[in-house]
Amino acid sequence: MLRGFVKCVTRKERIAYILDNRFGNWSDSELDVVMEIVGVKGDYSKDSKEDKIKTIVETLKVA
Description:
Blueprint: H1 2-7, H2 11-20, H3 28-38, H4 49-62
């Protein structure tokens, strides 16, 4: 999953990739890396996968 995300060139592509894949397809460690890549600040280690994905999408929309 992470490789596919990294291959996306634009923010729009990254948002679509994140939203087009099921939560279960992502591991927690992959989501943590994606959060670092997009610049999410704070400790989200205890959040659910769904919450992490929402945070990633919101961060990409603002960036």
